[in-house]
Amino acid sequence: MAENPSLNSFDLSGELSGHDAEVSHIAFSPDGHYLASTSHDVTVRVWRLSERKFPECVAVLHGHRFCTMDVSWSPDGN
Q1: String of b and e for 31-42 (b: at least 16 CB within 10 Å)?
Q2: CA-based nearest residue to 72, from 23, 16, 27, 24
Q3: Measured between alpha carbons, how far is 60 from 76 in angstroms, rounded to an integer?
Q4: What is the largest CA-CA distance in the chain?
Q5: Cβ-count burial of 58 within 10 angstroms (0-12 exposed, 13-18 middle, 19+ buried)?
Q6: Which residues contact 53 (CB under 8 A, 6 or more apart)?
Q7: pLDDT digits (tens, 9 = 90+) for 7-53
Q8: Is CB count within 10 Å lower at the N or C end of the chain?
């Protein structure tokens, strides 16, 4: 994974504000600039990691019928 200075200071015990239920899984993008999270609220959210204190939600993926339990990135980051 590429070195991303923002990951060095990101507090993994923090809260991903935006999900309406428990987060079930997270995955960092191969370049370390994004984080995807799945939740029992049946959404997947994509977060941009930056020098800001908190990740910024840049996409919400809807349409799942049941809670999403896993997420992953392809090696090229898509």
Answers
A1: ebbbbbbbbebb
A2: 27
A3: 20
A4: 37
A5: exposed
A6: none
A7: 555 555 556 678 888 888 999 999 989 999 988 888 899 999 877 67
A8: C
